[in-house]
Amino acid sequence: MLIREFVEVDWSMVWPIVREVVREQETFPYDPGLTAEQAYGMWVETPPGLTVVAVDGDRVLGTAKMGTNRPGPGAHVSTASFMVAADARGRGVGTALCRYALAWARQRGYAGMQFNAVVESNTTAVELYRRHGFEVIGTVPRAFAHPALGRVGLHLMYQEF
Question: ω before 48 within 30° of 0 (cis)?
Answer without folding.
Answer: yes
